[in-house]
Amino acid sequence: MTRTDSTDAAPSACRLRPRAPRDDAWVAESIASVWGAVDVVSRGRVHRADQLPGLVGERDGERVGLLTYHVQDGALEVVTIQSLAPRTGVGSSLLDGAVRVARDAGCHRIWLVTTNDNTGACAFYSARGMRVRAVHAGALEVSRGLKPSIPTRAEDGTPLEDEIEFEQWLGAEPPVPALSGAALREHREALVRRHMQAENVHDFDDVIATFAHPRYELVGTGRVHDGEEEVRAYFQQSRGAFPDQRNELHALHHADDAVLAEFDLLGTHLGPLGDLAPTGRAFRVRMAALFVFEGADLVCERVYFDSGSILRQLERP
Ligand SMILES: CC(C)(COP(=O)(O)OP(=O)(O)OC[C@H]1O[C@@H](n2cnc3c(N)ncnc32)[C@H](O)[C@@H]1OP(=O)(O)O)[C@@H](O)C(=O)NCCC(=O)NCCS
Fold it and tell me: In the chain, what are the domains?
């Protein structure tokens, strides 16, 4: 039955209220019934979704829907949304409620991720005016590392591989140029962390998206990769040599026009590196990267390191 079925009375309105302690057991059961557990992974982060703030939808005194959310960095993430009365407006009410919560919290954006098999959810978010911000190809492999119970295939056999990120801006887009002081510092730090995490999961679309102008300056080798095309070629070449290349962040420091990151870079030499055939050896080297900003915009990552210390580890007998 849908809302257009003229032989049945239209469903009564779905009323929203914040979740209350009496909902706790139902919230946990409801989330586990869809996500297999109360842990829900999005963009490489595990949420205990049953402990998040949420909205409960009720119709005629019965619970008919649940939405949980997480507010961070001026944006509200819808972590879970589910309707017990599909195609009767419950999902829409919940999403409208999330927009109100986001506005009240001073957020400029709501966003969420779904998986590539969930065509119904994608149709729903599109119908509700949300837009695809990014397709994170292969992201579910990372999620599976955090939550091994995530199956490799959906019930209909579709391989579960990608995260699809939807967003909706709640005001002028984007609001960041007006940032200053602590808010600017917070924005820059969040962007640098997102950038380094996206590098770790090889989500290069997202790495590029963190730049206003993509540019790497590798002081250790004297190479500069400027513009999206050159930066993508650099990703392809460096990850060809070190397919598991990743960083372990130690500290971030703020300067007037930059954020300085101290980190270890790690990788295993499994592909050609210039003239050097794959050695199969791993390296770990301490580095510093200056993330250069113009206001709120990231315009360059300038990396200081000793390339000799990498080569010595690869070439050791
Ligand atoms: C996604 C979900 C929350 C939508 O809730 P809902 O109560 O069915 O949504 P609504 O009734 O408000 O739908 C609004 C519009 O979205 C679109 N829509 C919703 N579900 C759709 C589907 N399965 N296929 C195509 N379009 C859909 C339609 O345009 C619909 O309007 P219509 O019914 O008048 O045609 C619900 O399907 C659900 O609980 N799914 C299971 C859990 C889940 O996958 N959650 C999302 C995880 S990311």
Answer: 15-173 (3.40.630.30), 181-315 (3.10.450.50)
